[in-house]
Write a structure and sequence with these properties.
The protein is α/β, with parallel strands linked by helices and 205 residues long. The protein has 7 helices and 6 strands. Helix 1 crosses helix 7.
Length: 205
């Protein structure tokens, strides 16, 4: 069992998602001493303040919060929709930030990396930049050491979903190794992470 673990989330629900393929490739190419646990966001409901007030945080979100809190880092593999973040992944992060008092436990000082793939020519640079204000307000430690943003992804994966392009495999291997080193740095929860309701980006309106 690897001594270090990070949780990886694909921001796409599509069965043939290139981002899920990229996440699986990151798990395959990770250093031997790093485990990459792939978690699903499929069972996370749309955020609803009434649902939270009546039933609390849904079980799927609670379980995912605990997995992230126990991990050395979080890898967000994000599609790019309309030059910004995908709604399903943003919705997941919104649930994970509830209640606000739990933000330091789940996110405070946690190593987070971004990467992504798209079938189009534009890669996911806009989406990765759009995530930065969200990560900042949650008080994470974003890793910006390397960029992994894959355009025209169908050229790089075969029909089984395997990453077959050798140059991209080397880039992905260097990316996940760099993030592993970054996540290995001792983490102390950031008591300065904002914990009022606005910090989660979710208000009961």
């Amino acid at each position: 069992m690897p001594p270090r673990t990070i949780v990886g989330l694909s921001g796409s629900l599509r069965r043939g998602s290139f981002n899920t393929m990229l996440l699986r490739a990151a798990r395959e190419l990770a250093p031997d001493d790093l485990g990459v646990e792939i978690a699903s966001i499929r069972d996370i409901p749309l955020y609803d303040g009434d649902l939270e007030a009546e039933h609390g945080v849904p079980e799927a979100a609670r379980a995912l919060k605990d997995r992230i809190a126990a991990a050395a880092g979080l890898l967000l593999v994000t599609p790019e929709y309309n030059n910004s973040v995908p709604g399903v992944l943003k919705n997941t992060i919104d649930w994970l930030s509830r209640p606000p008092a739990d933000i330091p436990r789940v996110f405070g000082g946690r190593a987070v990396a971004l990467c992504g793939a798209t079938p189009g020519p534009g890669a996911t640079n806009h989406a990765q930049v759009a995530w930065l204000p969200v990560l900042r307000v949650l008080g994470v430690r974003p890793w910006l050491g390397r960029i992994l943003s894959v355009p025209t992804a169908s050229k790089f994966f075969d029909e089984s979903g395997a990453l077959v392009d050798e140059k991209l495999r080397e880039r992905a291997r260097a990316f996940i190794a760099g993030f592993a080193d970054f996540a290995a740095v001792s983490r102390a929860p950031r008591s300065g992470a904002r914990s009022e309701p606005k910090a989660s980006g979710v208000e009961k309106v």
